[in-house]
Design a protein that fits this description.
Elements (H helix, E strand, L loop, with lengths): L14 H20 L6 H33 L1
């Protein structure tokens, strides 16, 4: 297995775009499972990592929105 350099990129996404990315990745998983396709681990592992990252970002956005609403109501 070839070792890859890790690079970081900052991108701007709306909450809606993050939601769509999560939906797309979950849809890919559903299709793979429905047709019993076993993708190469080099392909699926990064996809799972991206999904977890997007779900974490989505949760952080929801928490921040709730915090702002609570702060506004004080």
């Amino acid at each position: 297995m070839k070792t890859e350099e890790v690079c970081t990129a900052t991108i701007k996404l709306t909450e809606h775009e993050i939601s769509k990315l999560i939906w797309c990745i979950k849809s890919v998983h559903n299709v793979l499972n429905a047709f019993e396709i076993e993708p190469d681990k080099d392909w699926i592992v990064p996809l799972d990592t991206i999904l977890k990252d997007m779900e974490k970002i989505s949760e952080n956005i929801k928490e921040e929105k709730t915090k702002r609403i609570n702060d506004k109501n004080k």
